[in-house]
Fold this sequence. Notes:
Elements: H1 4-7, H2 14-22, H3 29-46, H4 52-76, H5 81-91
Helix pairs in contact: 4-5
Amino acid sequence: MPDYYDVVKKPIDLATMEGRCISDLYTTPQKFVDDFALMMNNAVLYNTVRTSPRLFLSDFQQMFCILLCYIYIHFTDGDCGKSSCLLIVFLV
């Protein structure tokens, strides 16, 4: 992907996000969600509509939402609720 950095001006990837988690650089959950949204937006920007990566994005966004809800419920004793998941997917 020699033109990736020409198209995507603010790159982010899962390895970078993992490093930020390990280093406690995410000071709020929203910052993590923002990076995930940036990664998804970059993927949409770079990949054409019918490519495999682009087709995979919707499933990946749904898995992220489910995981985020699971984490929220199990670590905060909260009720994730469907509207919270929809908001996260909308942000992405």
